[in-house]
Amino acid sequence: MTGLRYVYAVCRPFRSALQAQLTGVAGAPPKQLTHHGLVAVVGTVPEADFTEAALRAHLEDLDWLTATARAHQQVIDALTAVTTPLPLRLATVFRDDSGVRTMMEAREEDFRRVLDRLEGQVEWGVKVYVETDAAESAEAAEPGRPEAKAESGRDYLRRRRMQTRAREDVWQHATAFAGRLHEKLSAFAEDSRLHAPQSAALSGASGQNVLNAAYLVPRADSEEFVELVDREKDDAPGIRVELTGPWAAYSFTGEFGEDSEVER
């Protein structure tokens, strides 16, 4: 193979075949590179796009980053369907196969330790949002107030205090619900991680994010986990619960993939 080696993940050997038409970054199909009983899943990418200088330039190109991230995630998703991958960070690149093998040998003990811990596990993401219209409805819920009537200064201040109190009540309810939900899901899961709430401007999601958590769950118990989340949703009027997964265990790979929250 010519070009640089793009490494998606490290895993143990697996028998099931990946989809025949699967392609990854730069349109190249992923290949398996075996070393000391571990497998690096790699693709070939053009040097012109993946040198250090080229990658710095691409950081300013949102379209390129989005396409690359989606192609990367496509390969990880395919691996997650057939094995337990340890996903590496976006744009982990080496000069050639020898460079990949050198990396695998240097990190072999760490790879095996993390893969042992993740074996048979998947990650589920749960986000809780306060619906914007729920907060606005709470502000407007003062009964018996004539909308068209001119207000005195005292009435205006009273109304504003009531709106503020109603909005705070919505937030308190949402944060209390999120805390109870996280406690229940953490008790079910093998492990959990709390991430910083996502900015609505960046995520494009409606509402305000009050819980952004990841849960490590045995693959065999995933259906029960989903049912648990669904049951809790029913008790949350005015609050939106978003479940995503199952994913490769990005949030539980430590230094290998901790900044790889891609399309999840």
Structure description:
The protein is an alpha+beta fold. The protein has two domains: 116 residues, no CATH class; 131 residues, Alpha-Beta Plaits (2-Layer Sandwich), CATH 3.30.70. Helix content is 42%, strand content 22%. It has nine helices and nine strands. Strands 1, 2, 3, 4 and 5 form a five-stranded antiparallel β-sheet that branches. A four-stranded antiparallel β-sheet has the order 7-8-6-9. Strand 2 and strand 3 form a beta hairpin. Helix 6 runs antiparallel to helix 7. The longest helix is centred in the middle third of the chain and has 36 residues. It is elongated. It starts with a strand and ends in a 17-residue tail after the last strand. The C terminus is likely disordered.
List the main descriptive attributes of the protein structure presented here.
264 residues; alpha+beta; Alpha-Beta Plaits; 2 domains; five-stranded antiparallel beta sheet; four-stranded antiparallel beta sheet; 42% helix
